């Protein structure tokens, strides 16, 4: 084997990685394909790949292939803030409704060209269409059962078993999305005037629910890396009665934080000793780029964790199908579902159950998480290239968003008013707090590729930040 030839191949891939053409997480072509593309022997390719591994530029994943290494980022993470541990009424700012009206919750440039749907989503539509044809004769004259379609609940159950959570099919109830599940969970555990603990920064959809249900919020400080701080929650519990704690332990929005197992156990112990419900928002649970993350529900010893989720982030926003596993409140939730929704769409459930059982959902997740990881790297590269060096941001290992801290004097609500003029939509940090925190923070999503017009939008936003 010519040493010169294999070294040429090493230099070729090193340059591709250095120039950002190959991004962390990208899969390299097969050994056979590389040998054919570069007109060399397989042994030459193998020698080059071994050298790239030694340089920690690529990694081998058994039975999968070679991937560009996910390198640690040098950026500092956003500072953790500590709101006062007191109950407050919730008032969602008007800017929230403006962002939602623009359909821009997870897209910096909603008017840009949309990405082509993956072949897996096309496959999903075939399953849904087949179910729709069948429903004309079989389901059109009947309501769905209160729990939802058994075959779909079975598929959801099986998905959780792979994440070390074992529940029965009848422990699940199908809902019209995760927000509906959270709504039901709050209704069965709280009454107007009760105190609810949320992680801070919090999901603005949760704050919206608390406002509508006239519940008080206690914002509990959360790390942008490890999520809810159990010690801060314990301090709040020493002064206030808390009826429920809402937490997104896996790739939380807006930070992308994931709670360590030790913190999850601390939360469960606090819930057991202080008699409150843990409402787990697991909507990003399957969007991990690496290891499988176990839900808090798997640690539940007293049936006081209410698990809520949906397919809206992992599959399609247009599928308003979620679920809730409410533990000791299960029967109450089923009755409230009949009141608030009556029944779920059987056709969508049947098509979705068929799609999952055929392996389509698993293939979609494999493709989608690789795509999201690649798009995260695109966004990070653009931030490094176009934005001020002093910004702080998270590098989550899953989910769909980054949390960024800008200069302390920068007001991101005012920045929003400037960016709107260019049809660029950011999500200001104040949306994630009821206490007017995070004025110089924003959430950015990597749910779309940072290329073309969206890359130009990131560049323009960087210019506005530098000039602010």
What's this entry about, in short?
The chain has 15 helices and 14 strands.
What topology does this entry show?
Blueprint lengths: L2 H16 L12 H8 L3 H13 L3 E4 L3 E4 L25 H8 L17 H20 L11 H12 L11 E3 L2 H12 L5 E6 L3 H9 L3 E8 L3 E2 L1 H8 L6 E4 L13 H14 L2 E5 L23 E6 L11 E4 L4 H11 L5 H12 L2 H27 L5 E2 L7 E5 L6 H8 L7 E2 L12 E5 L6 H16 L1
Helix pairs in contact: 1-3, 2-3, 5-12, 5-13, 6-12, 7-8, 7-11, 9-10, 13-15
Please describe what this structure looks like:
With 468 residues, this protein is α/β, with parallel strands linked by helices. The chain has 3 domains: 3-68, Arc Repressor Mutant, subunit A, CATH 1.10.10; 94-116 and 362-467, Aspartate Aminotransferase, domain 1 (Alpha-Beta Complex); 119-358, Type I PLP-dependent aspartate aminotransferase-like (Major domain) (Aspartate Aminotransferase, domain 2), CATH 3.40.640. The protein contains 15 helices and 14 strands. The chain has helices at 3-18, 31-38, 42-54, 94-101, 119-138, 150-161, 178-189, 204-212, 230-237, 261-274, 330-340, 346-357, 360-386, 412-419, 452-467; strands at residues 58-61, 65-68, 173-175, 195-200, 216-223, 227-228, 244-247, 277-281, 305-310, 322-325, 392-393, 401-405, 427-428, 441-445. The strands form 3 sheets. It has an 8-stranded mixed sheet with strand order 3-10-9-8-7-4-5-6, with helices on both faces. A hairpin with a 3-residue loop joins strand 5 and strand 6. Helix 5 packs across helix 13, helix 6 packs across helix 12 and helix 7 packs across helix 11 (330-340). The longest helix is centred in the last third of the chain and has 27 residues, at 360-386. The protein is globular. The chain starts with a helix and ends with a helix.
């Amino acid at each position: 084997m010519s040493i010169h030839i294999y070294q040429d191949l090493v230099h070729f891939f090193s340059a591709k990685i250095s120039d950002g053409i190959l991004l962390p997480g990208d899969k390299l072509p097969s050994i056979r394909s590389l040998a054919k593309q570069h007109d060399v022997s397989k042994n030459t390719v193998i020698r080059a790949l071994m050298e790239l591994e030694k340089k920690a530029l690529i990694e081998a994943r058994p039975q999968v292939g070679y991937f560009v290494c996910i390198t640690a980022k040098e950026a500092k993470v956003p500072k953790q803030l500590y709101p006062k541990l007191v109950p407050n009424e919730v008032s969602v700012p008007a800017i929230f409704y403006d962002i939602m009206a623009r359909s821009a919750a997870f897209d910096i440039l909603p008017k840009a060209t949309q990405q082509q749907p993956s072949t897996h989503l096309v496959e999903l539509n075939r399953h849904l269409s087949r179910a729709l044809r069948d429903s004309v004769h079989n389901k059109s004259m009947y309501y769905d059962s209160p729990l939802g379609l058994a075959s779909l609940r079975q598929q959801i159950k099986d998905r959780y078993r792979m994440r070390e959570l074992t529940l029965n099919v009848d422990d699940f109830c199908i809902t019209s999305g995760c927000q509906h599940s959270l709504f039901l969970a709050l209704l069965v555990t709280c009454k107007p005037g009760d105190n609810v603990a949320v992680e801070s920064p919090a999901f603005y959809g949760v704050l919206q629910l608390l406002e509508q249900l006239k519940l008080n919020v206690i914002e509990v400080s959360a790390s942008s890396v490890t999520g809810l701080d159990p010690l801060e929650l314990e301090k709040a519990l020493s002064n206030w009665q808390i009826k429920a704690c809402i937490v997104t332990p896996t790739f939380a929005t807006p930070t992308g934080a994931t709670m360590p197992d030790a913190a999850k156990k601390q939360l469960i112990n606090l819930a057991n000793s202080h008699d409150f419900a843990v409402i787990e928002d697991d909507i990003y649970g399957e969007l991990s780029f690496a290891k499988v993350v176990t839900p808090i529900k798997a640690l539940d010893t007293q049936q006081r964790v209410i698990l809520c989720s949906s397919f809206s982030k992992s599959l399609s926003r247009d599928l308003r199908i979620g679920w809730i596993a409410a533990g000791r409140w299960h029967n109450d939730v089923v009755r409230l579902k009949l009141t608030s929704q009556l029944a779920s769409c059987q056709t969508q459930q049947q098509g979705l159950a068929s799609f999952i059982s055929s392996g389509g959902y698993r293939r979609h997740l494999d493709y989608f998480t690789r795509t999201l990881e690649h798009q995260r790297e695109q966004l990070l590269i653009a931030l490094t290239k176009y934005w001020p060096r002093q910004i702080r941001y998270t590098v989550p290992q899953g989910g769909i968003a980054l949390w960024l801290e800008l200069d302390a004097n920068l007001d991101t609500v005012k920045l929003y008013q400037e960016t709107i003029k260019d049809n660029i939509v950011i999500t200001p940090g104040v949306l994630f707090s009821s206490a007017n925190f995070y004025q110089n923070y924003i959430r950015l999503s990597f749910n779309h590729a940072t290329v073309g017009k969206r890359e130009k939008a990131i560049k323009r936003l960087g210019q506005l930040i530098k000039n602010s």
